[in-house]
Amino acid sequence: MLRSMPDGRTGVLLINLGTPDSPSTRDVRRYLREFLSDPRVIDSAAVPRWLLVNLVIAPFRPRKAAAAYRKIWGPGGSPLWVHGIALRDAVAKTLGDAYVVELAMRYRSPSIPEALERLVAADVDHVVALPLFPQWADSSTGSAVACLEDAADTLAHAPPVETLPAFFDDPGFLEAFEQVARPVLAEARPDHVLFSYHGLPERQIRAADPTASHCLSRDDCCEAPGPSLARCYRAQCYATTSSLAGALGLGPDDHSIAFQSRLGRTPWIRPYTDHALPELAARGVRRIVIFCPSFVADCLETLEEIGIRAREQWLGLGGEALTLVPSLNTHPRWVEAVAGMVRRAL
Q1: Could you list the pLDDT tens digit for every one of the 346 residues in the chain?
Q2: Is the dihedral of CA 50, 51, 55, 60 positive or negative?
Q3: Is residue 233 within 8 Å of 208, Cβ to Cβ?
Q4: Going from the N-terminus, what domains does the chain have, and what CATH number goes with each?
Q5: Alpha-carbon radius of gyration of the chain
Q6: What 3-state DSSP class applies to 251?
Q7: On the chain, which terminus has fewer CB atoms closer than 10 Å, C or N?
Q8: Bond into 271 cis (ω within 30)
Q9: Cα(215)–Cα(87) distance, rounded to whole angstroms?
Q10: Partner residues linked to 102 by β-bridges
């Protein structure tokens, strides 16, 4: 842990998941191969993972995924990239000349090694890295940290690197989402608010806390705060939801939680978002607002999966309206929160 303010400049490395170079099938296939070949993402043995990625997923899934990317791709490129660059620049302006801020992607470009090399070239004294994943998971935060450590070990004259922890309960992060959501809720007047998080296989949740015999033994096992918050992604999602619901004045019957983006046939953490929507419609809910607080920038999972596909599903169920709460992107309170986390590391 850094104990005193250094005399030279501080490098700041903002890390997000990644995006294809273009919405073409070829570039999406390249991205998916790199992403899904990571043993922390598909945590099976090497040979079965290779067979799954290269013989099952790569030949078929990229065409469908590329079509989804084309629906959200803008003049500046992928929304995740556009918002990431804008956040980098806004944080750099907020922190001032004593800091050098770079953006890196765990998969594709700009890669973590490339971004770290730029910070070394800028002659920073040390680096503060912030994986932009609010809730900790080995397949996201863990993978990014491992890649960063490998890059630092192999790079000549690399400065000391400090990685900031998950920020699912950071006051600035929560206040930023609250400020983004309030005008949306006031205008949409929802019957119900659904907090939809990125999903993970159940086995990865259990592996994060192998001593917890109660893990996933009942639906509410993550709702009570406890030691599992240190490593349990699902528990951190529930903690984020509880904080936001309290700040926004949402009662227990006014909101619920679900998980999206599952892949394959293995059990993923429940409830599933696409299963929760029919259940809510059957209860008489007609106007729904959806948060996606596991993403700090709008991307395929927010704009296409929820903003397009989930909305089509909801209207097909007889719903009146589905409104997506925008992600934090470059909201001023979020920029301040990122800068604050960096400053506190010093």
Answers
A1: 444 445 689 999 999 999 999 999 999 999 999 999 999 999 999 999 999 999 999 999 999 999 999 999 999 999 999 999 999 999 999 999 999 999 999 999 999 999 999 999 999 999 999 999 999 999 999 999 999 999 999 988 889 999 999 999 999 999 999 999 999 999 999 999 999 999 999 999 888 776 655 577 666 777 766 666 778 999 999 999 999 999 999 999 999 999 999 887 889 999 999 999 999 999 999 999 999 999 999 999 999 999 999 999 999 999 999 999 999 999 999 999 999 999 999 8
A2: negative
A3: yes
A4: 10-167+332-344 (3.40.50.1400), 171-324 (3.40.50.1400)
A5: 20
A6: coil
A7: N
A8: yes
A9: 36
A10: 13
Q: The tokens 């619901």 sit on which residue? A: 245
Q: Is the dihedral of CA 170, 295, 166, 127 positive or negative?
A: negative
Residue 94, both tokens:
């907020």
Type and span of the H or E element at 289 = strand 287-291
**DSSP letters spanning 148-211:** HHHHHHHSTTPPPEEE----TT-HHHHHHHHHHHHHHHHHH--SEEEEEEE--BHHHHHHHSTT
How far is residue 145's CA from residue 3's CA, in Å, rounded to a whole number? 21
The single-letter code of the amino acid at 223 is: E
CA atoms of 229 and 257, how far apart (whole Å): 17
As given in the structure block, the two tokens for residue 327 are: 């992600």
Q: Which two tokens stand for residue 46?
A: 């090497």
Residue pair 29/37 in contact by the 8 Å Cβ criterion: no
The full length of the chain comes to 346
